[in-house]
Amino acid sequence: MIAYKFLRADGSTVFSGFSWPLPGSEPGPWVEAPVEPCCSGIHACRPRDLSYWVGQTLYEIELGGEIVEERTKVIASRGRLLRRIDAWDHIRDEYTRMCADRAHEIARAQPALTALDADIEPSITDGPAMLGFMAAAIAEERGGMDAYRAEREFQAAWLAERLRS
């Protein structure tokens, strides 16, 4: 299975700190771990999950062995990084701005949420993960968990479309 993996700039993971062997002209070596969602295993995301896991750098990853699919991620017993997706470096700021604009639009559509609108622009420096979350959280305030998920789906579709280009 081919999926995506966001990492820190140095190739380490946000949650465990594991340093991935990065690909060069060839894919990186296989990494193996027992599958235990949120605890162990090779965690990655499908295109529809991208907005939940936004990070500094993005890689295409090949997953193998046992694969467990969850609502917003996949976990496998083995994986290897195939290539860095340089397109993310070029659209990261555009994604952040798009999320900020969506957050403004959602907040301004309901008078009770206009106070949240003031927090959006100062948060842009916090980056794409924060702005994606803010837009989804404001949507949730407006329309509940279904609205949160719909906003995340919109963001993921926006990302997937641009990453394919």
Q: How would you characterize the overall build of this protein?
A:
Strand 4 and strand 5 form a beta hairpin. 38% of the residues lie in helices and 21% in strands. The longest helix is centred in the middle third of the chain and has 22 residues, at 87-108. It folds into two domains: 2-85, no CATH class; 89-164, no CATH class. By secondary structure, it is an alpha+beta fold. It has four helices and five strands. Strands 1, 2, 3, 4 and 5 form a five-stranded antiparallel sheet that branches.
Give the secondary structure arrangement, pairings included.
Elements (H helix, E strand, L loop, with lengths): L1 E6 L23 E2 L9 E3 L12 E13 L4 E11 L2 H22 L5 H4 L10 H16 L1 H20 L1
Helix pairs in contact: 1-3, 1-4, 3-4
In short:
With 165 residues, the chain is of the alpha+beta class. Helix content is 38%, strand content 21%. A hairpin with a 4-residue loop joins strand 4 and strand 5.
Mean pLDDT over the full residue set: 94
Low-confidence stretches: none
- How many separate helices? 4
CA-atom Rg in angstroms: 17 Å
Kindly name the structural category. Answer: alpha+beta
Strand content: 15-25%
Number of strands: 5
Features:
alpha+beta; 2 domains; elongated
